[in-house]
Fold:
Amino acid sequence: MMTRKLIEQPTMSSTSKIISSLNSLSLGKMENIGAKLAEARKACLELDENELADRLREAHGALLRGDVRTYRKRVESVVSRLGHRR
Structure:
């Protein structure tokens, strides 16, 4: 059902939602941040953006290791690439 909604919506709207979700990540419970990263990763896969989905997986791994610098770099690179996709 989720896939159907994404197909019906313009790609720009889906891309904007992913960007908004990633930009809203801040301090909080790691589980909540991880869940938002997983949701964004799934949305990227549904948009056939496999490379971006991989970067979000790397960001989550970096977060779990406590590597905040890599986490931020990966999330920022995904946001930037999605911004160019619009």
Notes: DSSP finds five helices and no strands in the chain.
